[in-house]
Amino acid sequence: MKTEIAPIFVDVLIVGAGPAGLAAAISAKNAGVESLIVLEREQNAGGILRQCIHNGFGLHRFKEELTGPEYAQRDINTAKEMGIDIRTGVTVLSVTKDKEVTAISREYGLQIFKAKSVVLAMGCRERPRGALATPGTRCAGIYSAGTAQKFVNLEGFMPGRRVVILGSGDIGLIMARRMTLQGAKVLACVELMPYSSGLNRNIVQCLQDYNIPLYLSHTVVDIQGKERLTGVTVAKVDENRRPIPGTEIQFDCDTLLLSVGLIPENELTIGAGVDMCRTTNGAVVDDCLQTSIPGIFACGNVLHVHDLVDFVSEESTKAGKAAAEFAMGTVYTGRAINVKEGAGAMGVVPQIIRMNEGEHAPVNVMFRPRAVMQNPYIVIRADGKLVMSKKQMICAPGEMINVTLKPEHLAMMQDAAEVEVSVTTEKPE
Amino acid sequence: MYDAIIIGAGVVGCAVAQHLAKYNGKFAVIDRMEDVADGASKANSGIVHAGFDAHPGTEKARMNVKGAQMYPELAASMGVPYSQPGALVLAFSESDRPTIENLLAQSVANGVPGCRILEKDEILKMEPNTNPEVVCALYAPTSGLVSPYEMTCALADSACENGTDFILSNPVLEVKPTADGNWMVLCEHDEYKTRAVINCAGNGSGVIHNMISPKKVRLIARRGQYYLLDHTEDMPFKMTMFQCPTKMGKGVLVSPTTHGNTLLGPTAEDIDNNNDVSTTADGLADILKAVKLTWPGMNTRNTITTFSGIRAHEENGDFVIGKTEGAPEGAFEAVGVESPGLSSAPAIGQELGDTVAAFLGLDKKTDWKAPTPLPKSFRNMTNEERAEAYAQNKEYGALVCRCEQVTEAEIRAAIRRPVGARSIDGVKRRTRAGMGRCQGGFCSPRVLEILCEETGMNPTEVTKCGGASRLLVGTLHQIAKEARPDEN
Questions:
Q1: Looking at A247-372, which runs of residues are DSSP E strands?
Q2: For A160-217, how does the pLDDT look when each residue is reduced to its tens digit (9 = 90+)?
Q3: Pick the CATH number of A334-429 from 1.10.3470, 3.90.1280, 2.40.160, 2.60.40
Q4: CATH class of this structure's domain A128-260
């Protein structure tokens, strides 16, 4: 006998109640949508911010330094005051192109939602050791930095005493400081690239202030330990990132933390059949954050990995508003201009700008430079014609570049087929 | 006193135990590891070979063909994932054609049904991602896939449910005959007396054999490294894709797993330390190089992990199964069980089990409990089945492992099984929690918590895989105090 599952109809359904989902929800509600549900798989809203107990959040948005939980709480409080329906402990299992969302929870069981618009805000996950194919044993004591952060900050347990950190992503840097403060010895932070992928302020405040050496152009070439980790071997790498024999350094440690990249968690997105972008590992979106499927929007780290939560909130506010407008009948049909990655640029979002009727709101174009450059020019061209250029003192792949295209810039690309973003040391014509 | 002690809780030991438990008697399985399937049984290709590889007349050929025939029914009776997608052995030059023809002849001699030679066009039609340089291939339609650790766990559960003791985390140090014609098995933590001893110790089986028999055997530890890729919508191959075999083994393959992942490997390297399951940069590079021949469009972007297992290669190249030659009465063995060992395990279990039971003069149990098939995993359920499972048990509503969609109900059930999970890896092998693309990054703290709730362990006692493999070294306070003893 088949159990019939009656669908639940909703205008806007938001997947994830981290900073992206919360901002999208608040914005959608502000735009006038009444029927709105946020589904969150964890027991509490707030996403990964809940375990980021260090400060430094909110400088752009609130003009003050908050901890992760404080930043999240502000949005949670706002959402509560607005009466937004946030359901925690609910895991979304699938999203279809028709915006049918299947979820399961201990509280409600299996549910099927039929939404007018969906906002995907699932965040990202850490690249694990296995994905790096680092040789050695598969002993205990190897964690992604975020998992270690969860054990320390949310569970109150230490994963180890003598630590090597592979990768200099922000979570790794933050954990270098956190583990040190908590009594562990952090022996080294090892980075494959000739530059760190983390924010400069974290290099200073988390490594330098605690005399933790940063080994650039180095990697872990062997992992030892039968049951628990006993040591790692680190070696210098050449310009092709291949280990150079004879440069090995041995570290005796019981813990290896990995901060080797974040991957947008797009299994639901792919399952829905949304067009994906190979460089961001997120959906292809237009300047309303709408994906290739009308009415499905994506924002925050599931779209592309941000450096700062402030920009996640900003982006998601736009997505939430657009999702609300779509649910209320607005259809985005403007002519699409493709935004292309030119020389020196990668991971451009949005990949499409729609030239809708009337005055166009400013468009934020975000991307990363491919390398560290001194005095680079950020250049935007439409069909080869210069739209704008901007000089910076320095740029690095670890810090996202954010360019605002104002109405006058957009007017210049009115009839263009393609817009190209590039980062160059040569002054553009 | 036991009637029989089985040394080794791998797939062979557990298959023997499962069959022997059909007889009246007192049996135990002893292993040095904290869980069953913790050696080669967890790190192999997961293929139920059709049986064309082994030379006709060998124990390998006989056991492989018989075991492969037993698999579909046995796996179904236990609810263990098994499928039969078939296999191709690819030849990339005309000079390899005789090898393919020879494999076909062997398949006939060994009694493997349905094998035939395919030419290029047919191969590319069946498996379009194959290297177009392919010339011909042997097609073996009965080649199957099984989840080797799930199979071993299920066999162990069945034996345990019928009264067999599982003594884990207890390395066997010595086996010796007693004056009264029995055997003593001395372990690290205890010693056990038994009428018969059955050596199924995999890579350790040579050492145990040589303890009790003057007729020595020599095992070579032959390591195989692998890449495991994530399951995606478009799997590169539906069948197991072999290359022509070499004297070191069946060569590098590309194969789907029963769970839809893609497996690349294994290497074949003879090593000195039969416990060294590390991977090496050279070994991993060799796999990718070899795989490109089969799969020129190789994409390892979705690599989940790399791992290795060790084959127990007997120097003469065949299984040694039955009474331990040269030893006193009551000693039995399955030595040198390398590939196709997984395929052969059910046959070895049956034959060796019957042989031992006959030696001991045991009767069949009248109250033998048939295996309870494992429930369908949440991931493979339809929405209706999920709603139904939730109606029975609300813990089906709590998803713990997002990558493999494993629920709290399934994790608790894995810990409560007859031979239940006691570690993070134990839960992983039984449920797939942590087996996916994030490798337990998100779910391991919750799995640890559930293990504590179910077993009464303290979080700092929970291990990845037994012994000293603890995940946490102490509370924040303990470690801070240790670092700064003068502060409060």
A1: 249-252, 255-258, 262-264, 296-298, 335-341, 345-349, 352-355, 363-369
A2: 999 999 999 999 999 999 999 999 999 999 999 999 988 889 999 999 999 999 999 9
A3: 2.60.40
A4: alpha beta
